[in-house]
Amino acid sequence: MSVDAQAGSGPVEVSVIVPARNEEVTLASCLRSLLGQAGVSYEVIVVDDDSTDRTREIAESFSVQLIGADPLPSGWSGKCNACWAGAKVAQGKWLLFTDADTRHTPQSIASGLREAEEWGAAMLSYSPQQEVHGVAERALMPVIFAELAVRFRPKEVSDPASPAAAANGQYLLVRRDAYVAVGGHAAVAKAILEDVELARRLKDAGCRLKFRQSDVVSTRMYRSFSEMSEGWTKNLALLFPDAPELALRRTAEFALLVGCVVVTAVAAKNSKPVIATLSGAVFAVAGVAFVARIKKGHFNWISRALALFGLPLFSALLLRSYIRHKRGEVQWKGRTLATSIEH
């Protein structure tokens, strides 16, 4: 039974499509948050992407429509294949693609739909509130999301006059007719960053986009360092095509900030006020720029404070991602992915 039966009678306004591959840890909380949404008629479709854990069993325990992904065509990403399978059976005027590790407030669907319609957008995408635990997550994630906020500026993405296009597949609401017109996930089937590519195709077709950070949806993307490393190795080199240069800049920034602290402390201890003052001044200027950038990632003060130590970690993962893509050795959830970086 689909959730729209619980969300009111009449035509389905929004089809929520949840692609899920080995998501037994997160799927239940995601579906609980999607059930009982207010103010909109909707259905929930879970697409089991050949899971080997309890994903299917968990989905069957909820009042949602459960389907299996089609056999994976050669060259397709598993997520695109699952999303496309869900879209083909969806009934809604709007399609909301959302990941199995997300959690939604009771107004998540209705508020997204309302904003998309008010904005006149064919696609609305929210960047969710990121939940982080442990030192490594708290240090790294603010650095990455700050860089993303600079690289994909929401104001430019939402400006029809700007060619900038971006989206976050964790919450991607798209009008069905526009989605079909650009070929849907089948048209971006080989893309690892299918959300960004789909947004680009829509904007190139003259469709309006809306993209911003929102607290109506939250997620904890990774639950271990190895999972975080694998996930960002998959994405970073594609998100930042200037990966070697950016890694060098962030490593230099870390060395400058830490070096200034050391020099200032040593100079002060050895009664060399001029050196201490100059070093302190450099630290202040560089530190203000660093803090201003990190604030764009929308993390709490603890994570922002640890972000300094995330700089070398970010640089290392960025280079790792670049090298793995060059070698064609990118993996995710047991599958080797086709890379768009030339070898």
Report on this model:
The protein has 343 residues and is of the alpha/beta class. Helices cover 50% and strands 16% of the residues. It is elongated and about 80 Å long. The N and C termini lie far apart (47 Å).
**Roughly what is the average pLDDT, rounded to an integer?**
94
Indicate the percent of residues in helices. Answer: 40-55%
Which parts are unreliable, with pLDDT below 50 for 5 consecutive residues or more?
Answer: 1-6
Q: So, the CATH homologous superfamily of the largest domain?
A: Spore Coat Polysaccharide Biosynthesis Protein SpsA, Chain A
CATH second-level architecture of the largest domain: Alpha-Beta Complex
Number of helices: 13
The tally of beta strands, per DSSP, is 10
> Which structural class do the helices and strands define?
alpha/beta
CATH class of the largest domain equals Alpha Beta
Topology pattern, helix = H, strand = E? EHEHEHEEHEHHEHHHEHHHHEE
